[in-house]
Amino acid sequence: xxxxxxxxxxxxxxxxxxxxxxxxxxxxxxxxxxxxxxxxxxxxxxxxxxxxxxxxxxxxxxxxxxxxxxxxxxxxxxxxxxxxxxxxxxxxxxxxxxxxxxxxxxxxxxxxxxxxxxxxxxxxxxxxxxxxxxxxxxxxxxxxxxxxxxxxxxxxxxxxxxxxxxxxxxxxxxxxxxxxxxxxxxxxxxxxxxxxxxxxxxxxxxxxxxxxxxxxxxxxxxxxxxxxxxxxxxxxxxxxxxxxxxxxxxxxxxxxxxxxxxxxxxxxxxxxxxxxxxxxxxxxxxxxxxxxxxxxxxxxxxxxxxxxxxxxxxxxxxxxxxxxxxx
Length: 327
Hints:
This protein is α+β, with helices and mostly antiparallel strands. It has one domain (34-322): 4-Layer Sandwich (Deoxyribonuclease I, Chain A), CATH 3.60.10.10. The protein contains 5 helices and 16 strands. The protein has helices spanning 2-23, 68-84, 103-111, 195-214, 234-238; strands at 34-44, 94-100, 121-124, 134-139, 144-152, 167-174, 179-186, 220-225, 243-244, 258-260, 263-265, 268-272, 285-286, 303-304, 307-308, 318-322. The protein has a 6-stranded mixed sheet, with helices on one face. Strand 6 (167-174) and strand 7 (179-186) form a beta hairpin. The protein is globular, with a radius of gyration of 20 Å.
C-alpha cells in the first residue's frame, strides 16, 4: 500500500511539472498582461467562533455586532474591487490578502460571493498571530500553475516578542511566461510605535530578506502590508536586492494607502527582483476608487472603534501589471 501511495505521489509530481512545462510554450493570446493586486482587507472574520482564533469581537453577540449580513456585504465589496481592476484578459492573476481569519473565510470569498465566477483557488498561512489573522494568496488556476507553497515563520516568540504573521511563499508558472515566486506578507504592527514593535518589524524584514536571498536570480514579487512607509528602515534591509514599485504619491494631496491621525502614509507595497523588472511598469498604482472612500476621501473602514461604518477596509489596495511579452 505504501509503495502504491509513493508511486501515485510521484505521478502527481510529474503531472504538475509537465503541465508547467507545457505552459512555457508560447501560444497565441496567452501572453497578455496580467494584474497583480495586494490588499489589507481589515479584519475579515466570519461570524462563527473559532477556538483557535481570537475572534470574540467578531461575533453577532459581540459589541461589534458582526452579523452574517455585514460579513456578506464585506465579501461583496472585496469581490467588487477585484472585478474593478480587471484588464482586458480577465480577472487579476494573483491577489494577496492580509487580515483574513481562516480557510472558511477564503472559501466564502472564492466560492460563495460574486467572486465565485472568477474561479479562484487559494493558499494561506496558519500563523501564531495573537489577533488570529493570516495572509492568503488567491490565484487563477487557468493562468498560474501552482507548483508549491510554504509558510515561513518569523521567530518573534524566540526573541521575546509578540508572535506575528507567517510569510506565505508560493511558486508557480505564469501562462506564456516562466516560473514566478510570490511572497505575501503582513509585517508587525506600528500600533503604539513601541521599541518592541520596531524590533519585531525589523526581524520580519530580515526573514523576508533571507527569503529573497534564497531566490537570488529568480523572478520574485513580494506584496503586502509592510506597516512601514517608503522611508522606513525596513526597506534598507530589502532594497536592494528588491525594488519597491511604490506608487508616486503626494501626501499633501491626500494620497497614500492608509490614513491615520490626519496623516497619509503608504504602508502597502509591491516589491520585485531584478529579473522581474523587465516585465513590470516603473511603478505600481494605488486603487482609490470612490466606493472605497468616505466623504472626506479617506479609506472607508469597516469599523471606527466598535461602531460599524459599513466600509470595506482602512487600507487602499495596490496593483501592478505583469506583462509576460515585455522581455
